[in-house]
Write a structure and sequence with these properties.
55% helix; six-stranded parallel beta sheet; elongated; 231 residues; alpha/beta
Length: 231
């Protein structure tokens, strides 16, 4: 039996893609909406059985405020969070707000479906390895980074961080070389190393990953560099 659900995410394209995939698998999707900040209004008005709540920033203050309101006004709605590998703070915040489950956003569609069904049945839908990882980080916080952005930042040298910032600003190899006063061949080498370390295949992917994980903002704080929107 299909689940009556809604999909919300800060990125409309992701919400609509997941909604389409679930429709094809026999579920009744009431709506696909963005951003998550306005999710509570539409979820409260439509009252689905399950709300899939996508976020890239589970540890940020206020991320799960919409979930808390949904649970206050529609306690029968089960909310399942879709997000990156959570820090202990992130996963604790999700469940404290009233979430019934947490699923990694790189999970297969079958895993999302299982979480939906469990949440609708009143069960907690979270992979044991996520809880184990969270507990491991709580017990040994120095051994693991707080989140994906911090982990990626620690992989890059200060010079590579500067290159990534310039890539995110849309600079080509010549502009990077001129701005950093290095040879174009050296600039190309730095760019390739950044792509390799981030595990992406293009400058566009690198810029998108940096924006999604908050890596550029962290770089500005940690190194004193200006972010891509600074003057």
């Amino acid at each position: 039996m299909g689940v009556r659900l809604m999909v919300v995410d800060d990125h409309r394209l992701l919400a609509e893609a997941l909604a389409s995939a679930l429709k094809l698998r026999g579920h009744r999707v009431l709506a696909a909406a963005a951003p998550t900040a306005g999710a509570a209004d539409i979820v409260v008005s439509r009252a689905p059985e399950v709300c899939l709540f996508g976020t890239a920033t589970p540890a940020d203050p206020g991320t799960f405020d919409p979930i808390a309101r949904i649970k206050r006004e529609r306690p029968q709605v089960a909310v399942v969070v879709l997000g990156p590998v959570p820090s202990p703070r992130g996963i604790a915040a999700a469940f404290a707000a009233g979430a019934a489950g947490y699923v990694r956003h790189d999970e297969r569609i079958e895993g999302v479906e299982r979480a939906m069904v469990k949440a609708r049945a009143g069960e907690t839908a979270v992979a044991p390895q996520l809880l184990q990882g969270a507990f491991a980080e709580l017990l040994n916080p120095a051994a693991q980074p707080d989140d994906e952005g911090q982990r990626l930042l620690q992989m890059l040298t200060p010079r590579e961080i500067e290159v990534l910032v310039r890539v995110a600003e849309g600079e080509d190899t010549r502009l990077i070389a001129d701005g950093m006063r290095i040879a174009p061949s050296t600039a190309r080498t730095h760019v390739q190393r950044v792509l390799m370390k981030l595990g992406v295949g293009s400058r566009l992917e690198a810029a998108a990953l940096a924006a999604r994980t908050g890596l550029l903002e962290r770089a500005a704080v940690d190194t004193g560099q200006k972010g891509p929107d600074a003057v």
